[in-house]
Amino acid sequence: MYRDRKKNRSKKIIIIVSIFILILIASFYSLKLDRNVSVFENGFKNVSIFIQKCIMYPFTSLNGEKDKTLSDSYLIQKNINSSLEKEIRELKDILNLNKTFTEYNAINATVLSRNKSYWFNTITIDKGKKSGLEKDMAVVSSYGLIGKITKVSNNSSEIKLITSDDLNYKVSVSITTPSGDLYAILNGYDKKTNTVKVSGVDKNREVKEGDIVLTSGLGGLFPRGIYIGTVSKIESDKYNLSNILYIKTKQDFSNIHYVTVLKENS
Questions:
Q1: Where are the alpha helices (DSSP H) in the chain?
Q2: pLDDT tens profile 172-185
Q3: How many independent structural domains does the chain possess?
Q4: Of 75, 100, 125, which closes a domain?
């Protein structure tokens, strides 16, 4: 009985070893790509590939998710880097701006927040009375006039933008024309064209697209000569008594991070 069991076990081992050797031989021959493949080998390869795919599927699936995650992370990081690069450029521009307004004490500030319901009306910055800021001080960026301070607390200030829809908020401007400076009032913002509006322009004075618009200095609220933009469109008012100018600014008023407040040197 014992001898029979031992013989059966030996036969099983021999059979398993033989099958293993056959698999190795078949695999070896299948690697020779320059010969014809038999039906048996082809079937054997197909079965092997199918089994490998079944075994490796969980791992390849995880790798696919990993690649997807890495791809998403790369895009997110790329957007973050682009945003940081833009902010660095803004900071450099602000530092250069400080050298321009030499007759003023230029106080740099960071935008803290803005009202989502009135996005183009006001922004809040991180400087206030402790930094020497006061109401009605002019606020600029490297691209030109931003607005003026309307509220001040110890550590923050609210700035009313020149894109505000407040009809009582007016900025005296001058349009540089071939026949001399022309004075008018900036008041209002056109969301469709992303332009600020200058009204009350004399119809008898020649104004053309591309003319430069600056602060006039009249009224004492804003220093003279701060850049606002260029004329992009001209149309008559509803009474046909004067012209309305649409001014294209360089500043993207939907995306402001840093500003400079102009404080007169004492």
A1: 2-30, 39-100
A2: 999 988 888 899 99
A3: 3
A4: 100
